[in-house]
Structure formats: C-alpha cells, structure tokens
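Inputs:
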Amino acid sequence: MGKPISLSVNGRAVTVSPDDPDTPLLYVLRNELELRGPRFGCGLGQCGACTVHVDGQAVRSCTTPLSALQPGQKVVTLEGLATSGTPHPLQAAFVEEQAAQCGYCINGMIMQSAALLAQNPKPSRAEILQALAGNLCRCGTHLRIVRAVERASASL
Amino acid sequence: MVAMNLSRRALLKGSALVVGFALSGQGPAHAASATAPSKPVSPEEVDAFLALSRDGFATIYSGKVDLGTGVRTALIQMAAEELDLPLDHVTLVQGDTALTPDQGPTYGSLSIQNGGMQIRLACATARRQILTLAAERLGRKREDLETEAGIVRPKGGGEGVAYGELLKDGRFSLKVDKEAAPKDPGSYTLVGRSVQRLDIPEKIAGRFAYMQDFRLPGMLHGRVVRPPAIGAQLQSVDETSVRDVPGLIRIVREGNFLGIVARTEWAAIKAARQVQARWSEAEELPDQARLWEHVRGTRIVKDDVTMNVGDAVGSLPGEGRILKATYDFAIQTHGSIGPSCAVAMLSEGKLSVWTASQMTHALRKQLAAMMGLPLDDVRCIYIEGSGCYGRNGHEDAAGDAALLARAVGHPVRVQWSRADEHGWDPKGPPTLIDLSARLDGEGNVAAWASEFFIPDGAAGNVPLVAASLAGLPHETNNAPGNIIHNSGVPYAFPNVRTVCHRLAETPLRPSWIRTPGRMQNTFANESFLDELAAAAGVDPLEFRLRSLSDERGITVLRRAAALANWDSRPSPRQQEGEILRGRGLSYVKYELYRTYVAAVAEVEVERRTGAIRVTRFCVAQDCGQIINPDGVRNQIEGNIIQTVSRTLKEEVTFDRSRVTSLDWESYPILTFPEVPEIAIDLIDRPRDKPWGAGEPSAAIVSSAISNAVFDASGARLRSAPFTPDKVKAGLQRT
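Outputs:
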C-alpha cells in the first residue's frame, strides 16, 4: 500500500492508498471505489468512455494520474450526477429518447454533455455536435444522443 | 479521514451508489460450480426455455443474447405476449451454458427470427398446457377458458386459477409442440409496440453491470502481451524487467502465450508494458500496397456458384454494350468501444468463465478442448459487454483468462487494451469482386456475371488466440462467416452467373463483422447496377423496377423513393461548383429470401478536397412482423451510421509483421459532426414471420453512397473506404 491520498468523489471524502500514485483516476474509481459509470475504452484519452467531472470540467479519467489531482478537487461520476435521487435532466432525456444501444459509451456522452449544459444551457445543434466530437460511439446512436441533449436543454 | 475499505463502504451506502450483481442470481455464490444445475437445456423441452414461479413470474432461458441491440426487451415482449403475462412478470436469463438451450450463436440477424420464434413456440406450448391443467382443475372445457395477466378464467366469468398454482415445481415436463398455435397477432398487446428498453435506465445511471464490471472474491487482474509480429516465437522473457512493479503476482508463459497476473489492474498494465521479452522476427503478411494483387493471386480452394440462370457466359458477348468493373472492400475491425474482457475461475478441476461472447455454447467447446477438460466441467456464463458487431475479441479474452487462471490458481480477469483489440481481434477479410454485364439494344440487362474473391470457410469457431499461441488444441480452418450471401442478385435478368472463388488464405485471422459479405457483395452489385443504369441513360429507380417482380421489393423501393422525394432522372447530374450534391439508390433482399431494404443516400462532395459528406439517408424496410418498432429503428440507425463510417473511413493497416492501426487515431471512425440525418419508413406486416433487423440495412449503405457520389460528380467509387484521395483521383478521371 502506498501513501494515502484524499479525494472528494460524488460529494464524499474518501482516502485511497494506491501502490503507485500515478495510477490513473479511472482505475481508482472503478476498482477501489467500485463505481461503474466511468468506463475503460482506450486508455489513451481518444474515445471519452471514461469521462468524469473534476471541478465541473469534463476530464478523461483514463489519462489523469491520481497524483495530478489537487487536494480539495471535486470528482463527480455518472453515479453522482443525480441530485437527491432525482436523475439529472440528461439522464431522464436519454431514457425518453432511448438513446443507447450497447450503452458502453453513454457515460462519456452524458458527462461531456452535462459539462456543456452547465456552461451553455441552450447550445445550438452545431455546438452539441462539436462538444461531442471527441466522444466515440460505435453502435451508431449519435442521432438519439443529440436529440437527448436537446431535450435536456429544453427542460432546463 | 478513514481507511480505504471503510470509505468504500461509506460510498456504497450512498443513495446514488447502488452496487450489486445484477445477474439473475448468477453471482459469485452460484459460480462455485461449473456443473449444471438440474435443469433441462435441450431445445426440444419447454422447460429448457421457461420456468414459472408459484407467484406467477416467468423466467425465460435464451441461448441468444443481447449484444446491446435491445433484443432482451424484444424477447421478453414475445414471451410475455405468448404467455399472457405482464411485461414486468418476465425476466430473461441469457447464454449460460448450464441453464440456457443452445440456440446457436447470436449472429446473422437471427435472434428474433429463429431464437425468438423458438421461445414463442415454447411459450405457446406452455400456455396450451396451462389451459389444459386449468380445465381439469376448474372442471371446464379448455375452449371455454381464456388467459389474461397470469390467470386462467372462464370466458363468461367465474372463478379463475393463477398459472403458478397449476404446475408442480413450475415445470411443464413437456416437449415443445410445433403444432401449438401461437396467439393471433390481431390480439397482440405487447408485440408490435415500442416498449422502452429494460436496460437503458440502468445504463444511464451507471448501475448496469457489464462484463467489464464483473468481479469475484480473490480475483486477480491479467493482461496479455502479444507477439510483436504475427507468427513470432517467444525466445526468452526477462523476469527482472518487471521486478519493481508492486503487486505483480506472476509472469505466465506457455509456448508463445505471454501474460501478466497482478493484484491490481494498474500493476498488470504497467508490467505488461514494461516486460522485456525476446521474440523471433516474422514477416508473414503481404505488402499492403499490393493487397489486391495478393488476393487475386491466392490459391482458390473451390468455387461456389451462388446463382446460375440461363447462360451468362455464352450470352455475355453480343449486341449492345458490355461493361466490366472491379470492386474492392478493405479489411476492417469491429472497433468495440470497450475492449474485450472475461473472468475465468478454475476450481476443483472445473472451469467457469464469465464472458460477453455471442456464442457461449460454442466457446465452451473451444475452452474444453484447449484446457483438456471434459465438456461437462466447463461452464460459460454470458454477461453483456460492449457491443461486438460480430465475432470480436470477447472469446479470445475468455481463452486468455482461462490460461492465466489455471496458471495462478485464482480467478483472473483479463481486460484487453485498445491495442490488443485493434491489433488482435479477428478482422473482416478483404473482398475483391469482378463484374461484367451486357446491356441489350433497349438498355436492358441481357447478361450478368460476377466473380467474388473471398476466403474459404463459413461461420463456425474462430480459433482462440491463446490456444494458437500456446500450441494447445484449436481449430485450423478459417471462419469468416457466411460471406457468400447476396453475391447473387435479386433481379430477374435472363442470364446470370455469380461465382465465389474461395481462397485458401487471407492476410489476417478473419471473422464476421456486422452484415459479413452481404454488405461488401451488395456494395459491388448495387453500384455496378447503377453503372448499367447510367450507361443505359435510365433513372436508377426505374432501372431497378424494370427487373423486379417481387411486390415487397417494389414496395420498399417506392417507399424509400417517396421518403426521399426522389428526383427521377438518369445519373450523373450535371453541375458546376465547389460542392457537388447527389443522390443514390440501393436495394437489398437480404440473403435473397428475407428482410427487404431500400435506401436513398444524399451526399455532398467537396471538389477541392475530395471529402464526402453524407447528409441524409432515407430508408424503407420490411422485416415482416415487427416486435418493437423503436428497437428496429434504433438498429437501422445504427446500421446506417456504422456503415457510413466503414464506407468512408475505415481500413486496417499492417506492415509485413503486424497490424499497425492500433488506436482510434490510426483507425478513425465517424464522429458526431459527420453523422447524417436518417429518415425511416417501417413497413410492418404483423401477420407475417418476423425477420432480422440487426444487419440488413447495413447492406445497402456503401452502394447508396457510391451511387450518390457518382450522381453528384460523375466519379465512380469502386474501392472502399472512399478516402479523399480516391475521390480526388475519381474526379480527375471524369
């Protein structure tokens, strides 16, 4: 066990002690904290499946070493997006639009879009497409995802 | 601040954080034994497919699995409909070799058409038996009873009886009866409705347990270290090279199979990257720059004549105009967003493997052979993973996990890296097609002849990488899928001969990727047909309708044209300017006997850069009885978008030793700004058989785009992917 590192994850203070402080955040979230939202897709920051929020910014957790996080930084995962049990408007919209096939990429789609809507609650379609340009979906659910983001935006 | 374990527990108690095995009772406790619980699995038995609980809940056992397509929801709709149970009274267990019947692999757009129909028949048999038992219990005639929401009641009213009370132990002990009459589709309340998918709420909340989330107590993490060259021999491993990685358990070496097992996933990754191994050199691959010469020069094992009408060879020479063209389609990878993953446990000589395999029953046999175990001592349990679109690396990861688990005596989870997936999943093989045809004086097709150069083999077991590398028993034949389908044409030409030259080998281990062969073959057929229409100076829709007598085919073509507001005229359109716009048509009758699809693609071609932008697809589809219309739409959208990506962008690259397109930068796929709009017209035929929807609409995409680009620019694209360089070269030839 290595040196303990304190984190705030989904509003809770946690301490982890990885063997290697350069362990990417993704593995800490998935394996130490047993979270299922962030997903391993490429380990290269190319696909977006691992996206989480760090202080409200969408971040690729697969290429973010734990050591790069500053004390007090707030990590939020897909599981932490709901507030007091109420799903985030995006989560509700993704169900309404049936915006998933295998759903493996959906964590990234929702987290990236949530960061967009937090900054720009009424994005144009072009802005949505641009915001999601670095998130890959292989099943071809793109159109539904865009509609879900538009639906969530309309509800804000 | 508390220690990690306590923190974890605190986290798990959080309201938004619910963790648990959502595996229909197949959690770790159940995993201890690889032997079968006492449950029939023969597809002849009703009890193989369903069990009823005393409180009226049904469990359906399906050998076909949900690969992220939504088929779990559709199968539950079919079963609930046939049993007259509410939707939420039916659950589905999928692809567990100890519990589910072997209904064949989940491929070929057959889950509803075959798997669902088997379940429907088993449920119809069950419902008839429920009525018989209720008639005895209630002292009434069977015809006087009806079923609704899990209760049998007299039609005129009176006391009823719940299903659960009629069966001992919830078992039917009955053969599936082919004569059992399924319900009249006119009375359907669940089938034909866009029921919301059962998995999506869990998936968008981060609660869904994918294969990649599965954990066992005492489980270790494994990674594989593949040879730097295909065919390279492992000469030595420097164990000291990873000595400083904390948490390393062992380097596992078996022949040319090399793997790492570690306490943590990150340690396994670090060690796999860091380990120093010496391999022999190998250059077994052809020069990619001369791939098509290589394919054409590969030894032909046999010829499959897939269509032979009249005398195509004899009637090809003659009056009119003869056209010849060669088409090719690149090698491609499945590109699952989540790389393959599996967990294996070997306990008391019995192997349990948790896998996202589309073919757990077949995988079980492969693993038993590889491990030298009796089949009864191997159990494969399906857990949904990232979408696979065919035979990707899921099965191989299972083989890797089994070898590593055996080596270390603990359960091992193997997670492939992105490079493992791009480099070592089996590939969609290269396809080369020569076509020739003659137009008579009236511009009708007088003769059509084609030759397909494609690897030998059909669907089957793709050899496991681990078994091949370790020198353990494995298949030696290629299994590229049933890639001869749709080499024949759906048109009533007087003389047709289509021949598949089956090649002895192909550069990379082949397998099937969504719409295998049907897509590449339809690309050539429907594009070449468009060439003929243009040569005859006839509108592409009119040209197709001239040779079509199949009413369902004519209907989808007309409906797609109407949806697209088809501009009736011959191609190409004559136009000036930097951005050229065009529309292209394509049509398929899937495997020449089932699902009909027609589509119109609309494109923009940028003259200067050669970039193609597909702006819209209009699709009409008739797949017979529709179970879940929104599910079908979702599949069509997926087919279109994925195949636009394959058509415009995708090509596996390799040098003489290995695959070199090992990430998303070197193997780009379609991104959000590039996705076309899609309009869909579904033709439901509730009284017909349900046919597949997971593949057919992919078949028409490449040809529709090729035809649209020709319409826009006069450039004929015959080599996929349609990269800007090829487009520019095509434009220069016009």
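Remarks. Chain A touches chain B through 75 residues (CB under 8 Å). The helical segments of chain A are 25-32, 89-96, 106-119, 125-131, 142-155.
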